[in-house]
Design goal:
By secondary structure, the protein is mainly α. The protein has helices at about 15-30, 35-40, 45-60, 60-80, 85-90, 95-125, 170-180, 190-195, 195-210, 215-230, 240-245, 250-284.
């Protein structure tokens, strides 16, 4: 698969990108910027224009509720699957309860945020074709006590093991994942899991056979379809028409590449959502 160029937060020098990254983490209440936004940041003008238009939707109660419904659907669908007891296997490899607790925090973070990302990716994919997206309106103001406050994950701490820095054992798993899943990059979630190499190994040994099952493919397709449906129900319209992007200095070749990259995430994020749910189930 053709690689995807990303701009890592540590490499960002454009202040608009750095501000967008800070606001993305604040709006999603997470300590990291996902690969999706890092890929859009490879064209700084695009990240600036797309995040300004996405943010009002991302912080809306309707958006949070749609993502929560998708998360629950995946959890219920995977519940009957024969996921092994990863926690017991990790204890047998001398993992302590403190480590297992941290792993559960990490996987809970990604299980909640990734359904939001697939909705966002689906919305941007459609908007880049010039088609109308969202704009169905909100349910109106809510009383403060009725507001659903997203979970706060910014205090969750973990390291990321990037491909270029991965030890041989982790790099071998990454390469197997690339081949099996057909993904253009190893996403942030897997890099976080790799900070516990035994966890990555135990999870992947259990997860890999499931990726070839018809139930896995069917559920991934369902997640993508639900993401597209939720994108069409965004309360505020998302418009990324060609003239707007031209005015922001985003050239035709860049627009074509952004469409390719966004579509790649629309394909890979449903798999990621399933795989993270398998990891959550495995930890109990």
């Amino acid at each position: 698969m053709q690689p995807i160029r990303i701009l890592r937060p540590a490499d960002a020098t454009d202040e608009r990108v750095r501000e967008a990254f800070r606001d993305i983490k604040g709006s999603l209440r997470v300590p990291v910027v996902s690969a999706l936004f890092q890929a859009w940041a490879a064209v700084p003008d695009f990240l600036d224009v797309v995040w300004r238009r996405l943010r009002p939707n991302v912080v809306s109660p309707e958006f949070g509720a749609a993502a929560a419904r998708l998360e629950a659907e995946v959890r219920d669908a995977i519940a009957p699957w024969p996921v092994a007891d990863h926690a017991s296997r990790l204890r047998a490899r001398t993992a302590g309860e403190a480590d297992l607790s941290r792993m559960r925090e990490i996987v809970a973070l990604f299980a909640e945020v990734n359904p939001k990302l697939v909705i966002v990716a689906c919305a941007v994919e459609r908007a880049l074709t010039g088609e109308p997206v969202g704009g169905v309106g909100t349910g109106g103001p809510r009383r403060e006590e009725d507001r659903e406050v997203p979970r706060e994950f910014r205090g969750v701490r973990f390291s990321l093991v990037e491909e270029r820095d991965a030890p041989p054992r982790v790099r071998a798993i990454y390469e197997d994942m690339r081949t099996t899943l057909g993904v253009p990059l190893i996403e942030t979630e897997y890099q976080a899991m790799a900070s516990y190499p035994d966890w990555l190994d135990v999870w992947w040994r259990d997860c890999k056979p499931m990726t070839s099952l018809p139930a896995y493919a069917n559920l991934a397709e369902h997640v993508a379809a639900r993401g597209r449906q939720a994108a069409q129900q965004l309360p505020l319209g998302l418009f990324l028409h060609e003239r707007l992007l031209e005015e922001r200095g985003i050239e035709e070749a860049q627009r074509t590449e952004l469409q390719r990259v966004t579509s790649a995430f629309v394909r890979s994020l449903p798999q990621l959502i399933l795989n993270i749910e398998i990891a959550r189930r495995g930890l109990g």
